[in-house]
Amino acid sequence: MGKKQVVVIAGPSGSGKNTIISQIIKRYPNCGRLVTATTRQPREGEVDGYDYHFFTMERFDEEMGKGHIPEHRFVPVLNTYYGIYI
Q: Taking the complete model, does pTM exceed 0.70, yes or no?
C-alpha cells in the first residue's frame, strides 16, 4: 500500500479554498477531503455533509463530548465554532 499524503489548503474566508479543493478532486480522483464542522449557518449553495457539517451549538458540544471533534476553535467575533469532525 502506498503512503498517504496530507495537503492543507488554508486561507481566510472567501479566498477560494473550496474552488481549489474542487479542482484538485476533479483532476485527481484518488484524493479525498475532510469535512469539518461549524456552528455557523450555511451560505447559499453550501450542502450539509459536503461543505461542512452544520451543527447547532448544543450538537457541537455533544459531538465534542463524544470525542468526534478532537480539535476546534471558537471565533468570538462571529460567535462560531469550527472543528475537525471524525
A: yes
Tell me which long-range contacts 50-59 makes (C-beta under 8 A, separation of at least 24).
51/18, 53/85, 57/81
- Concatenating the DSSP letter of every residue in 7-30 gives -----STTSSHHHHHHHHHHH-TT
CA distances from 6 to 14, 30, 36 (A): 22, 12, 15
30-52 pLDDT, tens digit per residue, is: 998 889 999 999 999 999 999 89
Helix (H) or strand (E) holding 74: strand 71-75
Instruction: Provide the grid cell at 57.
Output: 451549538
**What DSSP state is assigned to residue 17?**
H
